[in-house]
Design a protein that fits this description.
homodimer; Amino acid/polyamine transporter I; Rossmann fold; APC_K+_Transporter (chains A, B); AA/rel_permease1 (chains A, B); transmembrane helix (chains A, B); APC family permease (chains A, B); transmembrane (chains A, B)
Chain lengths: 614, 614
């Protein structure tokens, strides 16, 4: 029943060889690898205004422009840095990989855990922002915000378990649509204001200024806007997915990505200045601008829908990247091995499931409010930027190939700038939630190291190198004990089975009721069972303790270190509800016995055929 | 860890022989066996007013008296009937038992399921009413009504798992306190009104009459008040718990119980008439009267606390009776066997746990509102009254002992009157919720019969009578297969173990990665493992299917019907979180293999020692 539901939701299993990596052209690669970065403009400008407006009121729009400019400059520095990463890592250079190779394990784990946190936040933030785009168009849906966001995450989770990335052709459309509509809006918005002489109607009153412009305020605004740069690293991770010449194509995409972000982020920020949008929890800044520029007509709805879809695509990036990252970490032994298993549809299902639950948890915790989630966001990204660039610097210094100084300088500038940005973000957002990230990163790194330690310990204990290999002599293995509750065909089958394997068999009965035990004794004699029956009282109605006591007693003919085999009858009812109706004594006993070193457990099933319904 | 928590909550395990049944004197038995019945006066009068007041306004107080009188008469009839049950069943005559002996299984199951539903309702109703007594005194607690009720249920559940009934000495106090305070209140209330000439202040306005008095209205009021009679049967169930002469003592308690209900129920109904209490959801009728009679002083709070405690005791009755009833039904095979198991503290823990959850579910569903729960209540009780009395009539007719006509007549009247009452309650409350009960009873009876059928089927298939007993010849049992994922000490231990038991061993490896399989082959040769290694590809990354396919293939030397033994290496990590870090492949494989008739499974554990923390 459950298996059917699973198949209905995620589709038929695929063969291992059916895995195939599609190669992207520039045209196809751009929307897939840049949706995360491009989509962040849907909330980045708004974040800057959230910081400025309550303090300096109408003056904000002037500073919005400067802050946006600073962020675009930061983007350019990043692009130069990442071009070098693309050149050096034709097989993909994610932060984890670059840090591991050049900085060592601990830094790699810091990068890995920063990214893990950020990918989870990407899903929560993008799904919430996608919902915000919907509710800005349809305010009636506002009360169901959290549910809508959760549904988006669940659908994406299921889609990715099915292996949605295969069908990503569909996904190009909304990105190009979003780019096109945004550019039209920017151009038309400027024309409408300057040439048609439209005077914006003030939807939301701009609050009075309550303070002065300070460095800290500008830094906070800058930190808020930096969310626009999340996702830029995706292209350098995805180099091997490009058609040949892969590195060149990747760099072309990186160039276009930069251009698009500059135009849209700059343009929308500029429109916000012209049309005086004021951030509120209920209506996004972008939707306020769109409504003013296009009126509440067809274009408004197209823009909102395109925004929703590009945000969903951005979340989808995390769904394909985080499980891959976790599988890398798991391969190195720092994460549970389950992250390496491919599911029925060849996706890393466990990573997808963990990501879905974590993102849903965050959504519920933060009530589906993008603005509350964002303080946690971006710190992780910039930490991983810094580590990746620093790793590149280390790489150049070590290599000392031609032009290494020049290249190290470029990555060094990248590392320094992203480090400063990380510090700014961390400092200004610390009390608003970034402290959680600074608390979680060392915790996760610590856990990851312990996981590795655990695997190492086990590998060492199981290893066959340089150790005495275990040997058993035959005699020691032939102690068989069959625990019996009563005497029936299942027990008989088990006794017969045991007799074929050993001559040293004892049937062991734990008595909780003298009368029952007496009955069993008589039945044992009646059927002339050729196995001795040992009966022990159990005042606490337990089975394992009396059994263990018996095994270690004088009475039982085993020497210390002997292996004792417990042969358990177990009848299996085919109906799924069958097990509810039976005491799970056998099952529980089996599981606790397996914790003993010198006990092997045999289960002899007896299948109960389900009969026709009356 | 979990085991420690369990022991902290419910105490150390007790030995089976530590079970002991305390025998009650009349003085001790009265509070324990009658708290359910006596406590219902806390809400029965209120229920009558809920029906009358909205329709006939101030006239209600006149009819309240008549309805209460009818209920007291019904009580007297019941008492005569139950005296005869006490005489006939010195070992306790619950409805289930009496119906089973005299009417047959189906009727017994109807009685059993009615009682089950009603016991669950008793807990939910009494806990809610107990909370209502608290919130009437401390209105600030009103917002936490549901939580308080749930806490009461959880504490009672845990208390009963500990075996609280032993300490029931404590419980006598609140019942006697409640009786004493109630009687004082009634006497003083009458004096205050008639002799001191107190004019009641109208706290709540009495609504205007909106209709006329009709038969249906009276019947509905009667049905509401009948909740006062729930719990009367407890004494006849509990006869064996009395000191000798048990039957006589039981009858004395029954007499006192009747007297107390007559006085308190009649008295409080009369006070309600004098002081014109109006039922509301926020303040109980009893608390309104208490406040008028005593003022909001110490006596008021004592009365509220006594009410809360007697209601908790009433709920506790269900906690001792329902698990016992379920154990009877389970003994007859109509309920899951787990209800027969005594827990660490010798209580029927599973019944207690099921009861707690069901009552909490009802509390949440009905928002902890006694008034909403009551329509479901009482129907079940009167159905079981009817069946029990009808059973007694059957018993007399069959016995034809001296005076059987007279005795059959008394029980016949009892049966008829309770039947009519059940019909009245069912009819008048049908749409208000009683339909649920009429829907549930046949459903539960059906389920119970299916449970029995299931047990019968299994017993038949396992029975050793009149059937060919299974025999195995040695050859058939010696097919051993060891599934291996790799080669390590755990696998080696397993292979050595298997070699001691059989010569026909194959190691079976499922290949999902050619390279890994090649490595395994080389390692196999390097260590010179004397067991042949079979490698099969699994395109869908499964293990069971290729294994089963191999067993049934030409390649494998077994004949149909042969038993094949799968020997599984399993390493066991002692830390509780250890298993999270390992693919549970072995465990899952084991569980699915056990569904095959001719496969036995041996698990050979390899214990990983947990090393010191670094």
């Amino acid at each position: 029943m459950l298996a059917n539901l699973k198949q209905f939701l995620i589709g038929k299993p695929l063969k291992s060889e059916e895995i195939h990596h599609e190669k992207y052209s520039v045209f196809r690669g751009l929307p897939i690898l840049s949706s995360d970065a491009i989509s962040s403009v849907a909330y980045a400008g708004e974040e800057i205004l959230w910081v400025l407006i309550p303090v300096i009121g109408i003056l904000s729009y002037k500073y919005l422009f400067y802050v946006a400019l600073a962020i675009v400059m930061l983007l350019c520095i990043l692009v130069f840095s990442y071009r070098q990463t693309i050149d050096s890592y034709p097989n993909g250079g994610g932060s984890y990989k670059v840090s591991k190779e050049n900085l060592g394990t601990t830094w790699a784990l810091i990068a890995g855990s920063s990214l893990t946190i950020d990918y989870i936040l990407t899903v929560a933030v993008s799904a919430s922002a996608g919902t915000a785009a919907i509710t800005s168009a349809f305010p009636k849906a506002l009360t169901h915000k959290v549910i809508i966001t959760m549904l988006i995450i669940i659908i994406m989770g299921i889609g990715n378990l099915r292996g949605i990335s295969e069908s990503s052709k569909l996904f190009s459309l909304p990105t190009y649509l979003f780019i096109a509509v945004s550019v039209i809006m920017i151009v038309y918005g400027i024309i409408k204001f300057y040439i048609l002489g439209y005077t914006p109607t003030q939807v939301q009153a701009i609050p009075e200024a309550t303070g002065n412009i300070t460095i800290l305020l500008i830094l906070r605004a800058f930190a808020g806007g930096c969310t626009a740069l999340t996702g830029v690293e995706a292209i350098s991770d995805g180099v091997p997915n490009f058609k040949e010449p892969a590195q060149k194509n990747a760099k072309v995409v990186l160039f276009f990505l930069t251009l698009i972000i500059m135009i849209i982020f700059g343009g929308i920020s500029y429109l916000a200045t012209l049309y005086k949008a004021v951030p509120t929890l209920d209506k996004t800044v972008v939707s306020q601008i769109t409504e003013q520029v296009f009126g509440k007509g067809i274009m408004f709805y197209i823009m909102q829908i395109a925004t929703t879809f590009i945000l969903i695509m951005a979340a989808n990036t995390a769904f394909s990247d985080l499980p891959l990252l976790l599988s890398f970490i798991a391969k190195d032994g720092y994460a549970p091995r389950q992250f390496l298993t491919r599911g029925d549809r060849l996706s890393y299902s466990n990573g997808i499931i963990v990501l879905s639950f974590a993102a849903i948890f965050l959504t519920v915790l933060f009530k589906g409010e993008t603005h509350f989630l964002l303080p946690l966001y971006a710190v992780g990204v910039f930490i991983s930027f810094t580590l990746s660039q620093t790793g590149m610097v280390g790489k150049w210094i070590k290599s000392r190939k031609a032009g290494w100084r020049h290249k190290a300088f470029i990555n060094g500038v990248g590392a320094l700038v992203t480090l400063i940005t990380a510090i700014i973000i961390g400092y200004t957002k610390f009390l608003h939630g970034a402290w959680v990230v600074f608390f979680l990163i060392p915790l996760i790194v610590h856990l990851m190291k312990n996981v590795r330690k655990h695997y190492d310990e086990i590998a060492e204990q199981l290893s066959m190198e340089n150790q005495d290999l275990p040997k058993f002599n035959e005699r020691k293995l032939k102690h068989f004990i069959v625990p019996v509750g009563g005497l029936n065909k299942s027990v008989l089958k088990t006794l017969n089975y045991a007799k074929c394997l050993s001559d040293d068999i004892v049937a062991f009965h734990v008595s909780v009721d003298d009368e029952e035990s007496e009955k069993l004794k008589r039945k044992w004699e009646k059927y002339n069972i050729a196995v001795p029956l040992v009966i022990k009282k159990s005042p606490y109605r337990e089975i394992k303790k009396p059994l263990m006591k018996y095994i270690f007693s004088e009475e039982y003919p085993s020497s210390p270190g002997d292996v004792v085999t417990i042969v358990m009858p177990q009848f299996v009812v085919s109906a799924w509800w069958g097990n509810i109706l039976h005491n799970q004594t056998a099952l529980i006993l089996k599981n606790t016995l397996l914790r003993e070193q010198n006990i092997a457990v045999i289960t002899v099933p007896y299948i109960i055929k389900s009969q026709k319904k009356s």
